[in-house]
Amino acid sequence: MEYTDQGTGEPLVLVHGHPFDRSMWQPQIERFAGAQWRVIAPDLRGYGETTVVPGKTHLETFARDLGELLDRLDVDRIVLGGLSMGGQIVMEFHRLFPERVRGLLLADTSPVGETEAGKRVRNETADRLLREGLGAYAGEVLPKMVAPHNLVALPAVGEHVLGMMRGAPAEGAAAALRGRAERLDYVESLGTVAVPTLIVVGSDDEYTPVAEAELMHRRIDGSKLVVIEGAAHMPNLERRDEFDAALEAFLSSVAGARGGEVRFGS
Fold this sequence. Notes:
Protein name: Pimeloyl-ACP methyl ester carboxylesterase
CATH superfamily: Alpha/Beta hydrolase fold, catalytic domain
CATH architecture: 3-Layer(aba) Sandwich
Mean pLDDT: 95
Number of strands: 8
Largest sheet: 8 strands, mixed
Distance between the termini: 40 Å
Order of helices and strands: EEHEHEHEHHHHHEHEHHE
Strand content: 15-25%
Number of helices: 11
CATH class: Alpha Beta
Pfam families: Abhydrolase_1
Radius of gyration: 17 Å
């Protein structure tokens, strides 16, 4: 398992989504790693530079991989954040190891179990990736990952996201899609979250709309909901300043965050 580990402070673990790698968190690593925060960002099993394991990778497997990495690094309690699939891995990690979590960041993700239609789509997409690779798929989904107006205004962001997707190993991405098709429903378990939680979502996110974030906000007592205007599924890249401001405020008060809703941008 390859990972970035920078800084000497309290551990902050950031989990990437599908079909990305740990470089999606590079802006936040640069911003937060230092004396206050030790930022750990792994490449998940099957992605980036980590070993590719064909077949089916469940969220529990990803979560246990994280636990083993933390054990190897002699890290106990963490602030844990993830985007999209990474957010679902965060929810699964909390389900398995709640005693290891002192704060949660859930970005552009959904706690709802997969529908029957969704299961078919994920498995069909996995079949397609194995046949074709990720080239055509990446081009098709890019305007949903990054809002079309941001592809024009922020071409480097679009190039980064497209590069991550095209570089994702097909076998690893397909295995994750098959595993996510069988994921648990986390709506009820979110009611047991008793640590400070920040929920972030792009206002234009089609994959995990604002309504999904509002559902998590209702389920987690005392959570903070931040809606970032003008961003789609990748607000940490599309609206870096707003995302980082929200995360900084959260981290600075992680011992006693208060609830509420905030909107950044215009």
